[in-house]
Amino acid sequence: MADPQTYRAAPSAYVVFGVMCGVPGLLGVWAALVSPMSWGPVLIPAGAYVFACVWLSRYRLTFLTDGLSYGSLFTPERVISYKSIESIEPILMTGRYAPPQRVLVKSKTGEELQINTKVFPREAVQRLVALKTHEA
Q1: How far is CA 90 from CA 6, 15, 99, 101, in A?
Q2: How does pLDDT run across 15-24, given as a tens digit for each residue?
Q3: What is the pTM of this model?
């Protein structure tokens, strides 16, 4: 395997949250300028965007020389060696807090690593899926 490479959340993920928080924020600014009111409608989307940026900044998918490492704000970093990978499968999870696109990496010892692939660049996801073809 090549030198270790770390992937982080794609810029497009920041743009999506920027639009989702920016539109209400701009409407709030417009409303605050047109009539005297609280700046709360501006601060709430701004705070939400700051939180989203911190959340996205904590996503890490690292292809080490001997293993795969993944972590996020709410998932502590875990490492699975390439030799112990039994399968890599896309999974569909439904539920209130389940990310829409995930990959499940299972080790031969029964460990499971669920990776939210939606936030990563396409190159990282392709590299992750390519590991499946290199399984022993």
Answers
A1: 21, 25, 12, 8
A2: 999 999 989 8
A3: 0.81
Residue 111 token pair: 């460990």
Look at residue 118 and tell me whether its pLDDT is greater than 60. yes
AA letter at 33: L
Q: Cα–Cα distances in Å, from 23 out to 19, 28, 56, 68, 128?
A: 6, 9, 19, 38, 34
Strands, sheet with 60-63, edge to edge from the N-terminal-most edge strand: 5-7, 60-63, 67-71, 78-81
**66-133: which CATH number, 3.40.50.720, 2.30.29.30, 3.30.460.10, 3.30.360.10?**
2.30.29.30
In whole angstroms, give the CA distance from residue 131 to residue 66: 12
Residues paired with 63 in a beta bridge: 5, 68
CA 106 to chain centre: 19
